[in-house]
Write a structure and sequence with these properties.
The chain is an all-beta fold. It has a 4-stranded parallel sheet, with no helix packed on it. The chain is globular, with a radius of gyration of 11 Å. The termini are far apart.
Length: 79
């Protein structure tokens, strides 16, 4: 089971569709994915403990993160 996922420099990545199926994911780093249109799927990662969003363009909302009860560390910059 996957615990860590890092997405780096994927300039054409528009969506995180499919990431919600990684139910045991604990750490997600999304860096320099400037075409990303939103992070809705992250809100379904109930075991997520650490999230880093860095230089991912103009994300419309952080509201999908409200239900992440296990989240302990959230790094958000240059987005």
């Amino acid at each position: 089971m996957l615990k860590f996922l890092g997405l780096f420099g994927l300039k054409r990545l528009r969506s995180l569709e499919g990431v919600e199926s990684l139910a045991q994911l604990e750490t997600l780093e999304v860096n320099e994915c400037r075409s990303l249109s939103g992070i809705t799927e992250i809100g379904q990662l109930g075991n997520l403990r650490r999230l880093e969003l860095n230089d991912d363009g103009r994300l419309p909302s952080l509201k999908p993160l409200e239900g992440l009860r296990e989240l302990r560390e959230f790094l958000f910059y240059e987005s």
